[in-house]
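ok so dumb question maybe but i'm new to this and my supervisor (M.) told me to 'just get the structure for S-methylmethionine transporter' and walked off. so i did the thing. is this what she meant?? sequence i used:
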Amino acid sequence: MDNHNFENEGQFNREMNSRHLQMLSIGGVIGTGLFLSSGYTIAQAGPFGAVASYLFGGIMVYLVMFSLGELSVAMPVTGSFHTYATRFISPGTGFMVAWMYWLCWVVALASQFVGAAQLMQRWFPDVPIWVFATIFAAIVFGLNTLTIGLFSKTENYLSSIKVYAILVFIVLGLLAMFGILPFEGTHSAPLFSNLTANGLLPNGMVGLVSVMLAVNYAFSGVEMIGIAAGETDNPKKAVPHAIKSTIVLLVVFFSLTMLVLASLLPMSEAGVTEAPFVTVFDKIGIPYSADIMNFIILTAILSASNSGLYAASRMLWSLSNEGMISPKLVKINKHGVPMRAMLLSMIGIIIALIASVYAEDTIFLALVSIAGFAVVIVWLAIPLAQINFRKHWLKDHTVEELDYKTPFTPVLPWITTILLAVSIVGIAWDPSQRAGLYFGIPFMILCYIYHYLRFKKW
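this is what came out, is it supposed to look like this??
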């Protein structure tokens, strides 16, 4: 499938391999959603419910990636699910999905730069937040201007720090759980007593379903494998391998991490702590644990932001490549970077940053709500596109000709669609997440209306 609809506008460099794809995806996934928001999940769903929700979320992501894998291998383009939704659902849906995803990362990046700046104030309390936010934004922008090969290697190193840190946390946490390491406040091995101390689901099924949006958001970023397929040296080999290895690694890491946190922290304590990882390290007796976690979370934010700007710029480029916005953004420079799309994405991030400072309770709240809601909507478009793609494919081909197949099509993609739809309904049960529906649904409708008014088709 052609990756570029315009001539003489430059080309992407296919320099990524499966390892790069894996670490790019991990870089986008492992961030503040795991390091800081895990305490909220435990408090809302209970310790057992938190572990169950992450296992369920991991299964859901795996199902989504089955569908994305088939599409990405058959049509490796830098636009991924936006292009697939446009061609196999409707142009209006593709337009809406692209803008939802772009906005998701713009808002996330603004939040992450502010969060990184706040973390730096632990060591430099007299330096204004905007100074560090600007520095981090400049660093991430600079990394994204590198050739895709250098960018991939940089992201590889940044993601590796997070992976090793989580691995160390899991090992130390398990040792504390089984009484091999001392743990403050306990006289015997904690084991799994906290998991059922308040019952399996202290807030019932409502508590479990209501955290699914937060869990899905924590897993967001894994879909970058599809976006980067158009810049991969051998998509037929690299994409399936990256999907399998990334999902297994993420599900194991997230599930084990939540098991350790839920087993060591009482439900009430997990709910009030700002960074549950710091609390666990403190209770194990790790010296300078707060500073260690501060550094790790900083690298996590930098890595996630690096991946996020990559995804935002490629999605904007894809909109231009499909003729849905100005064709001027389709230009690719000699390093294989869509610089104009990246600059426009940075402008969006700066606007979101300003909103986060001066209109946190109004404009920025709406943007954050749409961003959380957008993840599930984007994922929802993937199995629907795959179902229709398979129908089109079978008109002129056989299933055996596909290099990567979604098993049990169309049953499995429909199950995926239903599960995602249920998680959207669950948003309404959580007052803290409900704004996602209030702002997200109108934004979707506006995207469809604008597309129809401009292009006269849905």
